[in-house]
Amino acid sequence: PRDAVHPNGNVEHRDVHNMYGYYVHRATFEGLEKRTPGDRPFVLTRSFFISSHRYAAIWTGDNYAKWEHLGTSIAMVGALTLGGQSLVGADVGGFFKHPSTEMAVRW
Fold first, then answer.
1. CA neighbor of 45 nearest in space, from 63, 30, 26
2. From CA 60, how far away is CA 90, in angstroms rounded?
3. In the prediction, which pLDDT does 56 show?
4. For residue 79, which of 60, 63, 95 has the smallest C-alpha distance?
5. Which terminus of the chain has a lower count of CB atoms within 10 Å, N or C?
6. How far apart are CA 51 and CA 23, in angstroms?
7. What pLDDT is attached to residue 34?
8. Exposed (0-12), middle (13-18) or buried (19+): which is 94, by Cβ within 10 Å?
9. 57/29 Cα distance (integer angstroms)
10. pTM for this prediction
């Protein structure tokens, strides 16, 4: 809501909400990098912001084994990649319910 304002600057929460997720997976990536130098850490996130792809793969969240969710997941992944997020994915076949054989093949 517009009345959720952060102190010290009158910043609306909706303007900075996803920055929290960005800094969490960035800190996770950097911590894993320090723990095992030379290895590239794999971090998976659902909360992201601009340039999040530098530190984490993006997952679109739980979906149902429904044709509407198949269409939505394709649109989401396409829009995110066009927006510069390079490693994006959805649950293939859905997370909830059981897909038919045809749906699983098409997904």
1. 26
2. 5
3. 93
4. 60
5. N
6. 11
7. 96
8. buried
9. 11
10. 0.73
Percent of the residues in the chain that have a pLDDT greater than 90, as a whole number: 27
Q: How far apart are CA 85 and CA 58, in angstroms?
A: 8
80-88, Cβ contacts within 8 angstroms, sequence gap of 24 or more: 84/50, 84/51, 84/53, 85/48, 85/52, 85/53, 85/58, 86/53, 87/53, 87/57, 87/58, 88/57, 88/58, 88/59, 88/60
Angle, alpha carbons 58-38-52 (nearest 5°): 20
Q: Which tokens is 89 given?
A: 């994915």
First to last CA, the chain: 36
Long-range contacts of 29-36 (CB under 8 A, 24+ apart): 29/55, 29/56, 30/55
CA distance 43 to 54: 10
The residue with greater pLDDT, 95 or 31, is 31
Q: Are residues 85 and 48 in contact, defined by beta-carbon separation less than 8 angstroms? A: yes
State the average pLDDT for the chain. Answer: 87
